[in-house]
Specification:
With 317 residues, chain A is mainly alpha-helical. Helices cover 73% and strands 1% of the residues of chain A. Chain A has two domains: 2-53, no CATH class; 72-314, MetI-like fold (Orthogonal Bundle), CATH 1.10.3720.10. Chain A is globular. The two termini of chain A are 32 Å apart. Chain B starts with a helix and ends with a helix. The chains are: A mainly alpha (317), B mainly alpha (295). Chain B: This is ABC transporter permease.
Chain lengths: 317, 295
């Protein structure tokens, strides 16, 4: 009762209603203050720093006092070979990751669905296990496999009568190595999501199909796959929206920052990191980062737009 | 009859496939464990083996014998994880609770303010300069904790959990004269316990496995968390001997088990999470699936 009358008052006086709402809810708002403070400091304040992309930073003059250089930092970045290389690597590797991981996990989820709950639990635990390792730890694993003298892979190659490969200097193998590592770490998580999607399908569809004599394969093709397709589309679109960003640890630790491998392993995130920490070219690093943020933003908004068109409920915003 | 036998066969095929895939997931890490229990001379002679030729705990004894760096690494990691999780859990759940309150008109614009950061960010460089040149918290525990206190993804997850709390519960507490903070602590937190446990696990996982903040902001060796120590050791084998030498006990570097000790540290750094994870897997999965579907 009291509620409706408040609403009526609020409608009649919109701006006054806003402040009244604020003061009426100040107890509640005070709960949000610490969180909002962290969001403002660690997420919004850095956005002002993006002006650095148009400046030649000089710490004695400070960010605001430094000289404006227009689009020079962007020119410098885009005319270097690096821009094309890191953009290509970022997009191509992410596309491979998306395709590989989703196909394998959908297949695994469909197979898991055929097994008893107890078996599922066991396999889920083992598949999930690498997800809990950090990329640093994973880099130890790849090191143990790829070490040129002692490594497991070269040991096997030698046994089979092949020459050892100097993995950390041969860039052509790295798209596959990175993809396998990505699959290894993420397959458990990804499978789990699709498996959960399958569990949501009404069992009676399968029962009816079985009575009609449909084989397991037909059931998968005509029931399981069509019914998880919305979930698959949603997940793929979300991943495509993030295609300009990459998992920094994967690309920084696994190739051990080996310069010989940059042609296939250097992505925007590692490039920006090195421009900042190694060459200290802050203006250009900011420009490259801004390029990533803007294209990334456009991609997410576009993808969301498409999702909205397909299924409004699945839209992110 | 025949179809049943065919069914049996396909079941065994599926099991076989999963066993192979499980091995694919586990064997690489088993190598790390095996190397850490091998002798250096065996490694030099035979390369890395899945089962040690001679089983020895020398690498571990060695590390425990000159433990300063290792204990220090554990201490930093544990401190950061515990303090970070408590702080982040409190701040995140308070914020998420406000955003989840349907009777609060500002919740939509506040949600937009928080979640917009998932779509657009200033990127690495401004963030780095802010923390280093303006907040001046680099080379301190603050740099390892504060930047991760609020992660929009965690807020979103918690908001999803808390929006299931019936508004009537809150309204009736209000009629009884309880203030918002009191309602939050006396009513919301107790009923959100399972959600809080899941969220705490996510946060602790982020802090424990993090090396990024240390890579960016930590130069002081005494503030090196385990994961970053692991990276430094991989990057520069000398780092292991110098960091071990800073202990009080003088050690003979020529006897230092380089390869095996590295791997022993990797096992020790990954260990706690791997030991804990089977027990919490259920919570973790719950959070992941809720997050994936609601997010």
């Amino acid at each position: 009762m009291e509620h409706t009358s408040h609403r009526a008052v609020r409608r009649s006086n919109k701006s006054g209603g806003f402040w009244r709402e604020l003061s009426r809810k100040k107890g509640l708002i005070s709960l949000a203050v610490p969180g909002l403070l962290f969001v403002t400091v660690f997420y919004y304040l850095p956005m002002f720093g993006l002006v650095l992309a148009f400046k030649d930073l000089n710490f004695t003059k400070g960010i605001w006092g430094s000289d404006w250089v227009g689009f020079n930092n962007f020119k410098f970045f885009f005319t270097s070979d690096a821009a094309l290389q890191v953009t290509r690597n970022t997009i191509v590797l992410n596309l491979i990751f998306i395709a590989l991981t989703n196909i394998v996990s959908i297949a695994l989820a469909l197979l898991l669905y055929e097994l008893s709950r107890r078996a599922v639990k066991v396999y889920q635990t083992t598949l999930f296990f690498p997800y809990f390792l950090s990329w640093v730890t994973v880099s130890y694993v790849t090191y143990a496999l790829l070490n040129p003298e002692l490594g497991v892979i070269n040991h096997i190659l030698n046994r089979l009568g092949w020459e050892s490969i100097n993995w950390y200097f041969e860039s052509k193998y790295w798209p596959s190595i990175l993809s396998l590592a990505f699959l290894w770490k993420n397959v458990g998580y990804s499978t789990l999501i699709f498996y959960t999607g399958l569990l949501g399908i009404d069992k009676s569809y399968y029962e009816a199909a079985a009575i009609d004599g449909a084989s397991k394969f037909q059931q998968i093709r005509n029931i399981s796959l069509p019914l998880v397709t919305p979930l698959i589309i949603l997940i793929v679109l979300l991943q495509v929206g993030r295609i300009f960003y990459s998992d920094f640890g994967l690309f920084y630790f696994l190739p051990a920052d080996s310069g010989a491998l940059y042609s296939t392993t250097d992505v925007i995130d590692t490039y920006v990191f090195r421009a900042l920490r190694v060459s200290g070219d802050i203006g250009m690093a900011t420009a490259a980062g801004l390029y990533q943020s803007i294209v990334g933003f456009v991609l997410v908004v576009t993808v969301n737009f498409i999702v909205r068109k397909v299924n409004k409920e699945n839209a992110i915003f | 009859m025949i179809s049943q036998r065919k069914n049996q066969l396909s079941h065994w095929l599926i099991h076989a496939w999963f066993i192979v895939f499980s091995l694919f997931c586990i064997i690489p890490f088993l190598y790390i464990i095996s190397i850490s229990f091998s002798t250096e001379s065996d490694l030099a002679k035979y390369g890395y083996q899945l089962i040690p030729k001679t089983f020895t705990t020398f690498a571990y004894e060695y590390m425990i014998g000159s433990p300063k760096a290792l204990i220090n690494g554990y201490l930093v990691s544990i401190t950061v994880t515990v303090l970070g999780t408590i702080l982040s859990l409190a701040v995140t759940s308070m914020l998420a609770y406000v955003l989840s309150r349907k009777d609060f008109r500002g919740s939509n614009s506040l949600s937009f303010y928080v979640f917009f950061t998932m779509l657009f960010s200033g990127g690495l460089v401004p963030w780095y300069i802010l923390i280093k040149k303006y907040l001046h918290i680099d080379d301190s525990l603050f740099a390892l904790i504060l930047p991760y206190v609020i992660m929009p993804w965690h807020v979103l997850l918690m908001k999803g959990f808390l929006s299931d709390v019936p508004l009537a519960l809150i309204e009736s507490a209000k009629i009884d004269g309880a203030g918002e903070w009191r309602i939050f602590y006396k009513i919301i937190l107790p009923i959100a316990k399972p959600a809080l446990a899941t969220l705490a696990l996510f946060i602790a996982f982020v802090y424990w496995n993090d090396w990024y903040l240390a890579l960016l902001y930590i130069d002081n060796q005494d503030l090196t968390p385990l994961q970053y120590m692991l990276y430094r050791i991989m990057n520069n084998i000398q780092y292991l001997s110098t960091s071990l030498q800073t202990g009080n006990i003088s050690i003979d570097i020529s006897k230092m088990p380089n390869e095996t000790a590295r791997m022993a540290i990797a096992v020790l750094a990954a260990g706690p999470i791997l030991l804990v994870f089977p027990f919490f897997q259920k919570h973790f999965i719950k959070g992941l699936t809720v997050g994936a579907i609601k997010g």
